[in-house]
Amino acid sequence: MTFVAYAFLALAAIPFIYYLLSLYSTVRYFHTSRGDVAPNTDFTPPISCLKPVKGLDAEAYENYASFCRQDYPDYEIVFCVDPGDPTLPVLEKLVRDFPQRRIRLLFGSGRDAVNDKVARLTRLVAEAEHDFFVITDSDVRVQPDYLRTVISPFRDPHVGAATCLYSATEERNLTEKLQSIGMISDFFAGVMVAWQLDGIKFTFGQTIVTTRKAVAGYGGYPTIEDRPADDVYAGRLVAEQGYEVKLLPYVVHSVADFDSLREFLYKRLRWMTVMRLMRPWGHLGLIFTWGLPWSLVAIAIHPSLTVGAAYLGTYLFLRIVMTWLIGIWGMKQPRVWKKMLLIPLWDAMAFVIWLASFARHTIRWRGINYYLRDGKLTAVTARKQPSVLH
Question: What CATH number has the domain bearing residue 72?
């Protein structure tokens, strides 16, 4: 083989280094973080659960009702919803079924913002009675110990935000199974590496726990009303104030709602495009995390049984171990083994979506095309409409 061929074979092995780092980070994370979810019996400050709601999610009543069944002494649940929203009858039934809970309905954000969810959060924060906030998406379902668990880290005044791992309640079709295995084997693997190398400086919309003081410290939610990925920004802006952001190994559930592969691919591509526009160099660096295409490059350069077995065998072994560590050992999720055959399919799809994200220069948000400049959504002028991502 030539020097160039050896160089490409060496490059093709770089993803394996990333996989090994993911394995090390995962083991260390779960070993050091499990104390963060120890039973909490002595720290129960009043909490405001804030829910910006738009549209009727699948199994919405059970999602909302799980917050009414909390083993917690003092909390309120505040929804912000538009009058006439299809989920309103569900919320009214919730109020009737749980008279012992303090549930409030706010109608409309009263604001004109690109990101209407964040506009609703602006009003929710302003009208919340308490100084600890638990903010969750409407498709999230939790266990009765949820509030006691997620508030526990805040006994340390240096903690300014916390977030949780999450998984789907169940997968009804192939698309939802792909989404589930992708989260466990790919997305959370990257999160473990981020935790190891730089700490957690983001939050997930499935759970954002924070304080009124931390939110006020970055100017409040009006600061990010014109930004996508508001959950990521919410954690980042808290971390920039010097607070610690905790990633808890507690798993909440979200109800999967992908009815078609097309819908899933569009949402995934939009997210990857946002990430590229927000962090272009970090996004480009993902090229060294794709083990499957690099293994195929190695085989194409030196098509032999030895190279094929070495690269593809190592790729499959490390990906399976990574998925087992995160999904089964760490998150205690059932039925993960049955989905492991989908890992190569997910990796191939994710790689193609990553490539496609470089061809996109705008995103589509609530029917309008936007550029993302300095992290902010700027409407595309009517005179020039480049290719967009719906």
Answer: 3.90.550.10
